[in-house]
Amino acid sequence: MNDFFQKDIISIRDLGKENLESIFSATEKIIDLESNQRREIARGKTLGYLFFEPSTRTRLSFQSAMALIGGTSLGIADVSSSSVQKGESLSDTVKVMSSYTDVLVLRHTLDGSSRFAAEISQKPIINGGSGTEEHPTQAIQDLFTIKREKKNIDGLKIGIVGDLKYGRTVYSLLYGLGNYNVEVHLISPEALRIRSDSAYDIKKQLSYTESTNLDDYIDDLDVLYVTRIQKERFPDEEEYTKVKGSYVIGPDMLKKMKDDAIILHPLPRIDEISPDIDDAKQAKYFEQAEYGKYTRAALLGLILNENGF
Amino acid sequence: MNDFFQKDIISIRDLGKENLESIFSATEKIIDLESNQRREIARGKTLGYLFFEPSTRTRLSFQSAMALIGGTSLGIADVSSSSVQKGESLSDTVKVMSSYTDVLVLRHTLDGSSRFAAEISQKPIINGGSGTEEHPTQAIQDLFTIKREKKNIDGLKIGIVGDLKYGRTVYSLLYGLGNYNVEVHLISPEALRIRSDSAYDIKKQLSYTESTNLDDYIDDLDVLYVTRIQKERFPDEEEYTKVKGSYVIGPDMLKKMKDDAIILHPLPRIDEISPDIDDAKQAKYFEQAEYGKYTRAALLGLILNENGF
Amino acid sequence: MNDFFQKDIISIRDLGKENLESIFSATEKIIDLESNQRREIARGKTLGYLFFEPSTRTRLSFQSAMALIGGTSLGIADVSSSSVQKGESLSDTVKVMSSYTDVLVLRHTLDGSSRFAAEISQKPIINGGSGTEEHPTQAIQDLFTIKREKKNIDGLKIGIVGDLKYGRTVYSLLYGLGNYNVEVHLISPEALRIRSDSAYDIKKQLSYTESTNLDDYIDDLDVLYVTRIQKERFPDEEEYTKVKGSYVIGPDMLKKMKDDAIILHPLPRIDEISPDIDDAKQAKYFEQAEYGKYTRAALLGLILNENGF
Fold this sequence. Notes:
The structure is a homotrimer. Helices cover 38% and strands 14% of the residues of chain A. Chain A is α/β, with parallel strands linked by helices.
């Protein structure tokens, strides 16, 4: 029996290195399989999606993953604007949806919502993003992309740049990287540094430096992970405009990078990466988006099949 | 040829006991079939949904039913907020949708809308809830749940409690119960008694008592069917608060019930059933929701296959 | 290899008569195929839809076409109201969506959007309506309907009536008709005549007359193509009311038509065709809608299969 069969995926922190590596192997297998064989993996199975906070991209990534392995998707793209919201409890909504489907992906604004849902659901729950820190399938996608593009995660120098305070992607990635022997540099404006409570937990597994200056590290990085800096996060626009420029990755920044470095971004991007470098061989963010389809398909395949696929 | 092949399902009143029993048999068959065999039932068929009044739950129940038997669903979850609403007639919308699909489920605020649609549609129409009284697939689901859980419907003592005036679910259920030899007790606040015009029709087939006091019947019931009491239905909030409490099913009420009684609810519930009794063996409302998937799959299977399945 | 394999469908102007005829043949084949065989055509393939301007009808036509040939659809029914719209570029949205799917249908308010998308997409793009003039799959559907119902397009007398200024359907149809030897009469209120810049292009391929008076032509037409006249297009309501009546097709107008003429309309209609003539043998607009499912299925089948189907 595979370790993921009928299991919930709530936090990247529940997954050890061995777990991650078995998802990566399953993902490579999905990529290599013939289309006919892939479609047997979830034949006759149904994924339910329940998005209390809309995220078109995550939903479509799951739907395309499910279609790839021959299954069907149905659900609610935006619970808050749906007729479900008549005062019904999360618990009841999850119970009913889980009786309609074989596996559920839940996205919610509240920390702990997915774990709560997993406790009451008859069917496995996948956390599709919740609260401030958890987005395990994004972290799996990110780690897989690094492994696939750089062959090994151990030994890499990884810079994470942008808004490190509000992006749940970053926290999940850092927890995931805690399973590997990597050198991590966090680069952000002072106001958007990683939260100290989370930093405390992350440091148990991973040491990292913090800096406001990307230039100090750029030429030495193997992986540059860029996130969006949102205007709304800044008390005044002047401050925003001042810092923004220093974290934009464009042709000049690219020149400073190692030839075999890779640039990642969870997307959507606004202007933190210039489209001028989209064709550079280091730019791997669209590949990263596509790998998300394969990692999710692999995860769904493992959850739905007792003996894997 | 099975009786439902290419037939419309407009009102529970169109279905006799024999019809209902053949849907129940087909439902039991769906439950027992292997997943592979189920998926042959609607292979290559498409269900269209056309919801002029959004109902996420009914839509998802139909979609999951269709997926279970191997078919596809597509449609409009909320016609009023879609681009279809440019003054086009219901008739035109139905004609076009029926040319895209093999069977249509229609939900509409107006009485008679489904029957009208059935007249002009090339394909079978299922009423997914219309006007004040008709929700035939909900009634089928409710009756199947009673039969499945109590083995027989004939001979049962059935209490229906809550808002009996505005809930179309209740009317459809009562018309359905008219086919059986049952003792029915309607329990509601004075202001939410069953409408007298409908009562007139129902009484032709079914005798029932009316009361405001659940305590008079609770210890004798085999089935307790609970519906929501909505605040909006009361002229003043004081009146609402006063009556609300007397119809809440919680641990104290449960203690008065027979050991083998069952509690049903069409869901969503707000607070008319306390979550404290969800684990009681009498609580069958989540099973009821799940059976809705199977009864709808059975009905679709019968409509789509000349010789049944 | 078939001419459409992995090709974009951006403008009807890119398609010659031979191209159109091969789509028509493929459509006839789709209609004639057994359901089992049809479903092999797109088995395991996924259509992505990306509608920046909502069009429920076009989306459902594509979804039903994809279901007919065994494929899956997923996408965004209204990008502007989705969470995608966080300042992301069209280019990024298209790149990500194309990594999730095998073929993309795009609808956009801007001229040139589809051609732009095609340049950056890894997967074929179908223009599902863009800007003021392009709606190639509607034109294919219209031309197929004419051919199917009249056996030949060459030699026909075709009247196009209504709003010829703002309807992109009309422009695409005229460009398509440019491949055939037909006599075309454009009939519209003065204010809604075909735009002169487009007229210039169209006249290179096609000669037509322009008139405000339908009665001059009605008894001689083989095909009457009716479009909606929208109130909003008129500076004052009085003007609108005045012209509206002269272009309504009802029983009186029908009597003037040839016995074997056909009446088409891209739908939705409001009151420019009276429902009183829906059952007349000349009324072919609902057939036209249904053919849209088959022409789109044929087109998708050709795009997705190297050697056709």
